[in-house]
TrEMBL record:
This is Cupin. Residues 37-94 form the Cupin type-2 domain. SUPFAM superfamilies: RmlC-like cupins. It comes from the Bacteria. The lineage of its organism: Bacteria, Pseudomonadati, Pseudomonadota, Alphaproteobacteria, Hyphomicrobiales. It holds the Pfam family Cupin_2. It comes from Rhizobium meliloti.
């Protein structure tokens, strides 16, 4: 089996996304991917959509989260779902981290 089954907190390469934001792929299979995003205060995850279902857990910080026509402020321990094809994005109200899961995996994050 070639699938990585476990990851340590310092595993994975960070990809700089600009404006102080970055991401790292934690683990993935063809069916599922876990990704950590780190945001500086004021950092933006621009509104976008994709065919993947996304589940996000706020590991640290406070974010203004928009999913479709709904916007809420979420904090450490909160979570949200972005269904396939639905426009979504975040604004970091303070420095923070999100743990996102995608199904199927995001091939564009592996390039």
């Amino acid at each position: 089996m070639d699938t990585k089954l476990f990851a340590r907190g310092d595993d994975g390469e960070w990809t700089e996304l600009g404006q102080g934001n970055r991401r790292r792929v934690i683990l993935h299979t063809d069916e599922l991917m876990l990704v950590e995003f780190a945001f500086e205060k004021g950092g933006i995850g621009a509104l976008h959509s994709h065919p993947h279902v996304q589940g996000s857990y706020i590991a640290e910080g406070r974010f203004e989260v928009t999913v479709g026509e709904h916007t809420q402020v979420l904090s450490t321990g909160d979570s949200f779902i972005a269904p396939s094809g639905v426009v979504h994005g975040v604004k970091a109200l303070e420095a923070g981290r999100l743990i996102d899961s995608f199904t199927p995996h995001r091939a564009d994050f592996l390039k």
